[in-house]
Every structure is written in structure tokens, then in C-alpha cells.
Fold this sequence. Notes:
The longest helix is centred in the N-terminal third of the chain and has 26 residues. The two termini are about 25 Å apart. The protein is rod-shaped. By secondary structure, the protein is mainly α. The chain contains five helices and no strands.
Amino acid sequence: MNPILGYVLIALAVLNLVGLLVLFRRLGSPVKSEPVAPPAPAPDPEPAIQPDQLAGMLRRLENRLGDIEDQVRRTPSVNVTAESGTTSDRTLALAQRLARQGASVQDIADTCGISYTEAELLHRLHAGR
């Protein structure tokens, strides 16, 4: 998994969490407005989402966010080059697999962190005909 994709997923989960919190606060506090005539006593309308349901949603989002963070931490970053300056075996294996699956040359180069020329060579050697 690309580390950037992991961070994007974390950011989206956090934004969802913030959105739910804002929704919860709005549902919990009445809208203040100046009435023209004194309102007749009316029962409080039920919120669209019950507080316990919203709390459950927030817990699930928090758990999912924790899972995503754990996955990003566990996923080793792609080792683009070994210390000698050559491409690692793991990177080449990933590039070969992507070529066999039909990825474009640019996608292979971007995903594996190899040069466009290396990606083009691997694509020509391993792409399906």
C-alpha cells in the first residue's frame, strides 16, 4: 500500500469524524431565532439520529481509523534503491507483477519509485500480449 494513500485515507476518516461531531452538536443544540409571536408549547422533536446511534457510528469510525493507522505503520515503505544504488529485488518483483496486471508504464514508475526507462523495460518484458 502506498504510504500517501494511507495518509489520504486517514485524513478522510478524520474529516468524516469531524463532520459527524459537527452534525451531532447541531442536532443537540436548538437553532436560535426571534419568534414573531410567543410559540405554543410543543414537544421537542426527535433528532434524526439518536445520540446512542451517533456514538456507535463515532466508535466504529474511531476503530476504523485505528485500523488504518496500524496498517500504514505495518506496511513497509517501498525500498526504491539498495545502498549500492541498484533497484531492490522486492521493487522489481512488484514492478513485474504490476506489468503483468496491465499497469501503465507511468503507474509502474510512480508506484515502484523506479525510472520511467526501467518501468518501460519491465513493461515490455512482462506485460501480457
